[in-house]
């Protein structure tokens, strides 16, 4: 099976690519920069703008959306998902897979609200889909500790610990 991994060089995408390669899948890494892993095809595209996305999905049977954007989350997760639907339909992709977060609809942080909105958008997809809700990556906790060390306070907005 030929699987395109959007954001295949990122925190969730790179391990996804490695696991797919180990299982014998033909993997196409779709990203702005080349992957560190060998044995995969690389196609340049930017899901935040849609540039190169249609061409990058040509020949893919399945697409994994593992791209992330902490600074531009809505552009990558909402706008990017809308662009992905269009490109996937044009490329005759048969299935889409998305990585989300367990309980994202209950977490008051902006990023989690965007992930919950992305899930609502996915539910209306014209292409069959799967959402994998992972538990929170430890990088969030590490960034909170880093901010605490730098600023002497734990950021939280309206959230309460």
What does this structure look like?
This protein has 161 residues and is an alpha/beta fold. The protein has a single domain, classed as NAD(P)-binding Rossmann-like Domain (Rossmann fold), CATH 3.40.50. Helix content is 37%, strand content 20%. The chain is built from five helices and six strands; from the N terminus they run βαββαβαβαβα. The protein has helices at residues 13-22, 53-57, 73-90, 110-122, 138-151; strands at 2-6, 26-31, 41-44, 62-65, 95-101, 129-134. The protein has a six-stranded parallel beta sheet, with helices on both faces. The longest helix is centred in the middle third of the chain and has 18 residues, at 73-90. It starts with a strand and ends in a 10-residue tail after the last helix. The model has no long low-confidence stretch (mean pLDDT 90).
How is this fold's topology laid out?
Blueprint: E1 2-6, H1 13-22, E2 26-31, E3 41-44, H2 53-57, E4 62-65, H3 73-90, E5 95-101, H4 110-122, E6 129-134, H5 138-151
Helix pairs in contact: 3-4
Number of helices: 5
- Work out the strand percent: 15-25%
| Helix-strand category | alpha/beta
Mean pLDDT over the full residue set = 90
Summed up:
The chain is an alpha/beta fold.
Which descriptors apply to this entry?
161 residues; alpha/beta; Rossmann fold; six-stranded parallel beta sheet; 5 helices; 6 strands; 37% helix; 20% strand; globular
